[in-house]
Amino acid sequence: VGNFVYGTARRVVFTVDQQAMLAFYLVGIVWFIELSKNFATFVVTYAVFLWYYTPKPKGCGPSFPLLQGVGAGLFYHLGTIALGSFLIATTRPFRLTFLWLSRQAKGEGNAIVAAVASCCGACISFTHRNLEFMTKGAFMDVALSGTPFMVAAQNAHGFVSADVGKIAELTGAVGIISFAVVSTVFTLTLLAIWGFLMLRLRQVTPDQPREHIENPYFEVD
């Protein structure tokens, strides 16, 4: 097939500092994505509460509820949202794993998985006590009551279990508004990118002069 020429191979080697920076970068990216999602949840929930659950004159809605939600999130609750996003992102793998093992231990599924779940009883108990309630539902309570994240997470877990109907309605309203907002932002972003590319294309590609010849090799006198 061919001969291998020694000395031409290349291998990427990261220094310890570069590995630390890469790990820091990955953690920051995950944290930022989680923060963006949870901030959007807070803003939309805040707007839904203003629109549906705040007393107001009949036929009159709140002025710019989404902007009010953005302002409240940035100026009053950004630290809570950032801390909650970090805790949710870092504990999600453990929470999902041990909750799945807990369901397997209670069911009649794989005997091996049930045995592993029995051996991890302490971890499962810790998950149920401290990690199960760490979901984005906590930010609904933050938007409603302005409580710290851990208190809001426990409150959210409690009223989700107690009143499934209202939470389902609120979640549906939040989902619809979130979809509308995300679709609008996505569409506007695409239009902005398309307009920017068209503008750059016109700047880079000048108009062809009249004497332009498409293929000079086939020019006929």
TrEMBL record:
InterPro entries: Choline_transptr-like. It is found in: Cell membrane; Membrane. Its main location: membrane. Pfam families: Choline_transpo (PF04515). Keywords: Glycoprotein, Membrane, Transmembrane, Transmembrane helix. One of its GO terms (cellular component) is plasma membrane. GO terms for molecular function: transmembrane transporter activity. The chain crosses the membrane at residues 39-54, 66-89, 109-126, 176-199. It is a multi-pass membrane protein. Belongs to the CTL (choline transporter-like) family. Choline transporter. This is Choline transporter-like protein.
